[in-house]
Amino acid sequence: MHYDFIPTGVCAKKISFDLEDGVIHNLKFEKGCNGNLKAIGRLCEGKPAKEIAELLAGNTCGPKSTSCTDQLSIGLRQALEGVLSPS
């Protein structure tokens, strides 16, 4: 299933990903730090969403209380829990 998550408090405007049997595919960030976020997408490809959500939860960016990866963690958890509806 495909999901679009709208993050808050970060430079990225949208996080899109597919989940197949709890595994992440096609992770993409709209806006934000282009090179870093492309790398995050590659590193997460084929990995269990639960594992990635736990690993990235609480990560911050500079003085912000969150980060694009922390927001990804939130989006993945919401998708796994059925709170975030598929697009």
How would you spell out the order of helices and strands?
Answer: EEEHHH
How many domains in all?
1
The global form is globular
From the N-terminal CA to the C-terminal CA, the straight-line distance is 8 Å
Largest sheet: 3 strands, antiparallel
Assign a percent range to the helix content. 25-40%
Strand residues, percent: 15-25%
Tell me the number of strands. 3
Q: What is the averaged pLDDT score?
A: 97
Number of helices: 3
Structural class: alpha+beta
Strand order of the largest sheet: 1-2-3
Poorly predicted runs of 5 or more residues = none
Describe the 3D structure.
Strands 1-2-3 form a 3-stranded antiparallel sheet. It is built from 3 helices and 3 strands. The chain is an alpha+beta fold and 87 residues long. The chain has helices spanning 34-44, 49-56, 68-81; strands at 2-5, 14-20, 23-30. It has one domain (2-81). The model has no long low-confidence stretch (mean pLDDT 97).
Q: Which keywords apply here?
A:
alpha+beta, three-stranded antiparallel β-sheet, globular
Write the layout of secondary structure elements.
Elements: E1 2-5, E2 14-20, E3 23-30, H1 34-44, H2 49-56, H3 68-81
Antiparallel strand pairs: 1-2, 2-3
Helix pairs in contact: 2-3
Write a compact overview of the structure shown.
By secondary structure, this protein is an alpha+beta fold.
